[in-house]
Structure formats: C-alpha cells, structure tokens
Amino acid sequence: xxxxxxxxxxxxxxxxxxxxxxxxxxxxxxxxxxxxxxxxxxxxxxxxxxxxxxxxxxxxxxxxxxxxxxxxxxxxxxxxxxxxxxxxxxxxxxxxxxxxxxxxxxxxxxxxxxxxxxxxxxxxxxxxxxxxxxxxxxxxxxxxxxxxxxxxxxxxxxxxxxxxxxxxxxxxxxxxxxxxxxxxxxxx
Length: 188
Description:
Blueprint: H1 24-38, H2 45-48, H3 50-54, H4 56-59, E1 62-68, E2 77-83, H5 88-93, H6 95-106, E3 111-118, H7 138-145, H8 150-165
Parallel strand pairs: 2-3
Antiparallel strand pairs: 1-2
C-alpha cells in the first residue's frame, strides 16, 4: 500500500519584510480599517482628512461619527456628524455644501443626507514642544565634516545638536528603591 505525499501548503504571509521601520501612517489604514468599517466608515480617510474636506473652521466644531448605507448598497448613505452645541444650526445650514464636498471626496453620490448629533468634539492632545538643538562645538564639527555621505552627516549633526542641548541622561527611579516581592509556596 502506497501513500501519496503532498506538499505542505504554505501559510499566507501578511506582508513581505522590508528590513526597515515603517511609518505609522503607512499601516494605520490596515490596522484601523476593521474598526472604521464597524462604525460605518468605508474609508478611514474621511475621518483622518475631515479638515481637508470641510475646512479647518468647521472641522474644529464637527467630527464625522458614521456613514450608514442602505442594505447592500454603497451609495445613498447617511452621514452622522457630531457637532458642538452652539455651532449645530450653522453646520445644519451648511449641510448641502458638506454633502457635496464629501461626495466629491468619494467620487460618487455616497451621501444623500446628514444626521446631526450634539456633543463635544474630541480634540487632539497638545504635544510638548521639542527642545531646540544646541550649536555643535567646533571640535565635533570638524570630525563630522570628514564624513562623505551628506545624509549621514546631517543625521549625526542633528543628533549631536540634540545631545548637546539636553540636560544630560534621563533620570530613572533607582532600582534599589523598588522592593522585590517574596513568593512563598506551600510544599506538601
């Protein structure tokens, strides 16, 4: 009795390795896509590019929450907007313009009406200001000028400037101040 041996099926790879770090913006659509689709967003770009779609003034007081389409269709949907209380009447009057701009963004008649919900629009957290790099010392500058690759030289000059502008090594809590837990077990 002979058995035929078949080749093992290769597992589908997620993405080929590129041996480099990838920007978060490159992969956020893949990661957030499932969550965005769950809340009715076919394209996550509607949320991330809302300021470009409606303008900075209206993006500060409104935020898209979801897009609901009729069953089995990808057109004729309802866009739900979260709008800050006092701005709701103004944004409601701008409804036709918002519909036109969102449809222009999609490239087809995706939205036919807007539903408004009053509430507080989430704001992006304020990022702390980065310290400015200090000027590079003359002796260090001479050593960097000998580097032929301009890109590498620029990176090293930037690193040297930031190190010179810092207040020293970061401060960490002493390891000695953290007690080591004692684990006791019953031996039977």
